[in-house]
């Protein structure tokens, strides 16, 4: 099954906690702290799989998580880093932030590989906190939690030329005749339900054509599968309109071209700026020769060439293909890439508020928050200067006042992560 959009939740690995440990050897009675650092959490990495052409693998799996870092150990042993999570997607997949719709990365090339979420850093072991005045630090740094993010994966086919047209005008027949693609062909509407890609080889030069499934009026508003189909036109360099010039299906080719251009513009105005070519198909069944002249009279003055062709007999194919080849060469071989709109690591971090609460089960008063955690990492509480700094921190941040509001009494236990002390007024 062809799937070109999926929403998934990504979670980077947590960093491992640093270790509190002291060197204990028979002949080294005063061994110092030797707690090792925690390992870094695993990254979430997206990589292009050249053999994939659909996002079907994400249809039944919603959450992807990288490995956590291992805790630090004694004897200065560093915890093992968490295993990176490599997620493989088809070329042309765009990853967007689900909350804002902004582009995080566009995996537009065969070798595209991008770290979308970095794992949390590992915490420092107590060996880092030993000083001349505090030689036995009994605390370490906790590991950083890995970030979680919901993203949208959107596959936009990468092709030089996009075939557009109403259902059953002969796009699939044309593609099967001029490329190595083998689309499903039948004499009924909506034979094609997903984009087909084919490569045209002319004089040692190749270019890619995408057969965009038949568009209908209202496609730009999502009628039918409009949005799912139209987004595959966005990456193409040129647009080839296939119209039924024979009138066998009761269609007016001029109205068809006008309607499709209207839908393209309503979906994305930049699509109308792309070079266009018109292929008047089924001329082998044409009974009114004036139809071709009418199409040419309207569009050739606008710089849009019209080629009469037959997907069945091959009439006019060579002339059209050589024109498309020259057009693609003149436009260069550079792939259309969507620029990054959001950098997850340039977003200012929101300071986690300090939380003060009473844990009734353990009967302790807990103080938590990133600011508290950082303070503990650089404050020597066993020195007089450090203890005074700690008292001022508690007062300036309103922690003492909140403890009093909660009803703390002298002699009660206060816990700040790994640190516990008796409350004295």
What report would you give on this structure?
- By secondary structure, this protein is an alpha/beta fold.
- It has three domains: about 1-155, GTP1/OBG domain (Spo0b-associated Gtp-binding Protein, Chain: A, Distorted Sandwich), CATH 2.70.210.12; about 160-330, P-loop containing nucleotide triphosphate hydrolases (Rossmann fold, 3-Layer(aba) Sandwich), CATH 3.40.50; about 355-420, GTP-binding protein OBG, C-terminal domain (GMP Synthetase, Chain A, domain 3).
- The protein is built from eight helices and 18 strands.
- It has a six-stranded mixed β-sheet with strand order 10-11-9-12-13-14, sandwiched between helices.
- Helix 3 (about 255-265) links the parallel strand 12 and strand 13.
- The termini are far apart.
- The model is unreliable at about 180-195 and about 215-225 (pLDDT under 50).
């Amino acid at each position: 099954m062809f799937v070109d959009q999926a929403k998934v939740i990504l979670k980077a690995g947590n960093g491992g906690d640093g270790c509190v440990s002291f060197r204990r050897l028979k002949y080294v009675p005063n061994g110092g702290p030797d707690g090792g650092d925690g390992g870094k959490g695993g990254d979430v990495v997206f990589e292009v799989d050249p053999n994939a052409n659909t996002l079907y693998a994400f249809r039944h799996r919603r959450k992807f998580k990288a490995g956590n870092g291992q805790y630090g150990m004694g004897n200065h042993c560093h915890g093992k880093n968490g295993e990176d999570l490599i997620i493989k997607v088809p070329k042309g997949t765009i990853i967007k932030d689900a909350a804002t719709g902004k582009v995080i990365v566009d995996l537009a090339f065969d070798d595209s590989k991008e770290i979308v979420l970095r794992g949390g850093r590992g915490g420092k072991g107590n060996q880092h906190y030993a000083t001349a005045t505090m030689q036995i630090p009994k605390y370490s740094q906790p590991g950083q939690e890995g970030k979680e993010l919901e993203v949208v994966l959107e596959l936009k086919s990468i092709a030089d030329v996009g075939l557009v047209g109403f259902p059953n005008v002969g796009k699939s027949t044309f593609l099967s005749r001029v490329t190595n693609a083998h689309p499903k062909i039948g004499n009924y509407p909506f034979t094609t339900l997903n984009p087909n890609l084919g490569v045209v080889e002319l004089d040692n030069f190749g270019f890619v054509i995408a057969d965009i499934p038949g568009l209908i009026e209202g496609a730009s508003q999502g009628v039918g599968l409009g949005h799912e189909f139209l987004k595959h036109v966005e990456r193409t360099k040129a647009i080839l309109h296939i119209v039924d010039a024979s009138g066998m299906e009761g269609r007016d080719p001029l109205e068809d071209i006008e309607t499709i251009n209207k839908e393209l513009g309503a979906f994305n105005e930049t699509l109308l700026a792309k070079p266009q070519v018109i292929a008047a198909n089924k001329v082998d069944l044409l009974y009114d020769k004036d139809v071709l002249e009418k199409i040419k009279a309207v569009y050739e003055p606008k710089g849009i060439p019209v080629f009469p062709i037959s997907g069945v007999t091959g009439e006019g194919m060579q002339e059209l293909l050589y024109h498309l080849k020259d057009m693609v060469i003149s436009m260069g071989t550079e792939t259309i890439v969507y620029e990054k709109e959001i950098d997850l690591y340039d977003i200012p971090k929101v300071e986690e508020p300090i939380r003060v609460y009473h844990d009734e089960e353990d009967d302790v008063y807990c103080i938590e928050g990133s600011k508290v955690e950082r303070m503990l990492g650089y404050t020597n509480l066993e020195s007089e200067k450090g203890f005074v700094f700690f008292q001022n921190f508690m007062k300036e941040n309103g922690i003492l006042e909140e403890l009093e509001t909660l009803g703390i009494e002298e002699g009660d236990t206060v816990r700040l992560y790994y640190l516990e002390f008796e409350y004295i007024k």
